[in-house]
Amino acid sequence: MSESTIEWVRAFRGQRVLLIGDALLDTYIDGEAARLCREGPIPLFHKVSEQHLPGGAANVAANLRALEAEVAFVSVVGHDQAGEWLREALEAYGVSDRWLLEDERYGTPHKMRLLAEGQYVVRIDEGMRQGSTEGSVSEQTRRQLLETIEPLYHECAAVMISDYHYGVLATNVIARLAHLQRTAPKPLLIDSQALERFRDLCATVVTPNLAEAQRLVERQSAGTSHVSWEDLAQRIHGLLSTESVAITLAERGVFLLDSSDQGRHLPTHAVEQAADVGAGDAFACAMTLALAAGAPIQEAAQIGMDAAGISISKPRTAVVFHQELLQRVSVRVYSQHREQVSHDAMSQRIASVRLAQAQGKRIVCTNGVFDQMHAGHVHFLRQARALGDVLVVGVNNDSSARRLKGAGRPVSSEQDRLALVAALDPVDDAFLFEGETFDELLRLLKPDLYVKGGDYTPETIPEAATIREINCRVRILPLVSGAATTGQGREREVFPSYKLS
What we know:
Blueprint: H1 4-10, E1 16-21, E2 23-36, E3 43-56, H2 57-66, E4 70-78, H3 81-92, E5 100-103, E6 110-116, E7 119-126, H4 139-155, E8 158-163, H5 171-183, E9 188-192, E10 203-206, H6 210-220, H7 229-239, E11 242-248, E12 254-257, E13 263-266, H8 279-292, H9 297-311, H10 322-335, H11 343-358, E14 363-368, H12 375-386, E15 390-396, H13 398-405, H14 414-423, E16 429-433, H15 439-445, E17 449-453, H16 464-469, E18 473-477, H17 488-494, E19 497-499
Parallel strand pairs: 1-4, 1-8, 2-6, 4-5, 8-9, 9-10, 10-11, 14-15, 14-17, 15-16, 17-18
Antiparallel strand pairs: 2-3, 6-7, 11-12, 12-13, 18-19
Helix pairs in contact: 1-10, 2-8, 4-5, 6-7, 8-9, 9-10, 10-14
């Protein structure tokens, strides 16, 4: 694993994914149950609020969009109120309902959860029953599904199947996908509660949870009690036309069997008060996008675990945002590489910046401690990035930060501070440096513009002599405490760049 891991996650943006699966509506009704009903020994539930969220494959679509991918979501909904609420919920996440086919004989699967003071009271299901297959949608809708899928397949970078067994993935749809995958293979992930139905579809990876994996193997063969994770994965690999098998193990991580039959357990960190609704969806989405970006299967699975780890820390059916995942992955990568970056690797990164400059791009540099990151830091870096094409940030290492800030600082380690800065959208690259000044890296990078905060003047910048030496301009930006308050255009006029003489 290397910093290319971060680049794979950055590459999620704009990836086009074809998602086919069962769209569900998740409704959460919060209320109070302070006393028993007079009509019987049951709680009297007083409704306070109601929230509609995408569920099932619709939650997968929302997660893909939150990870900044472009998603073509193909599914079926009924001509009913739940279907309308689901369209509205998807729209709120930026997911188009253009490819949601409406079928009058189909009831939108709807799970309503009643909660009293955060505790589940009851779940009420309506619409199609789980386990529906061939007869759940009309013949006309099945034809429309086939007509919709084929052109979208050729436009996408990857395919996801999210099968909750409500009937969208009928036999003819699976057969068409199998044909398309044979003629024009793409990264394809299958998440299904009935994986045996996909035995003839060539997949990159299938992602059953442990219970689903055990049930699948039990349905196909006898003597499966006390089977190890690796044996389960091997048997599933033999049953299906898949390159890899990733069995999700909840708080124990993932067991991955790759295309070379190498099995490995990828552990995860336990999370207190974990809520696992949608964690599998977050895992599958991030893994698919990592594969589409070119990541090898093990690192794609690890990125998926990073996304699932974020998802389970959120209540209810939640999505993972691209910036959250980028920060989580950055912290993981940098914490696993605490040694000083090698001279050759740093030289290669600096050469990449200089090449961008030679191609006519404007290079902007800034530096700082960046301890206890807040909105003011982010706003400052966005302003700096807007002044050029490439933003490179220097981050003081722990010893220099301590000399600058005093005892008890920095609060966050140099690796965590570097990871968080590197993960921010405006930042193209970030380096640790040792001294109190940024002189050495400035001489190597030779930026077009050096940016500092408003507590400096061009004359008091510690790196002033180096800036004159490399013939660099300076821009002083106003400091904002914790929040952005000033528009970019005005700052360009009031705070011009300086040439030091």
